[in-house]
Amino acid sequence: MPLLPFSHAHQGETMAGSFFKNVASLLIALFALGYVLPDRAHVERDVVIDAPPEKIFALISDLKSWKEWAPLSSIAPQADDHLNGAGQAFEIQSAHLLPARFTQEIVAAAEPARLVTRTRLAGLGETDSAFTLLPDEDGAVRVVWSLDSNLRDHAPFLLKPFWTYASYFAEPALGPASERSLAKLKRVAEAG
């Protein structure tokens, strides 16, 4: 039993102070760790399509046809878009997904085996995507779609840790959308 009536109150203040110091220390450590953890996000999906590689390549290399199967067409169906001629760039100004501007551009093509695109989200950085078309045993084509990004690269200094942690959610956020898009690409390519 304490000798003075305020002994417990003083001990409670010490415990509360210790708790807040521990929480603050943890937050500072997590913030600092966000600068040194790996910051690359990688998502990869594939599908086997029973269609000639030239037909598949035509669908992925013509940005006009992306509305038939690509993720942005389902994420922002009401978006305003247009194609620019040189370098084939597709731009979406959307108030439905986020008040943001996306630019999708073809940066490299090796017909009918590989296509590389770059997506820029205004203020949030870039994602590089590659489509690799590989012959399958049965005469079909395995289409591998990979997405790579470093979200921390283009972030303001104080937001870099946040984007480092956000990159760990790229797989669960983008993987299912990539699977749905590849399934749509398969349906479109195998039709007629």
From TrEMBL:
This is Polyketide cyclase. It comes from Hyphococcus luteus. The chain crosses the membrane at residues 20-37. The keyword RNA-binding does not apply. Gene3D superfamilies: 3.30.530.20. It comes from the Bacteria. Keywords: Membrane, Transmembrane, Transmembrane helix.
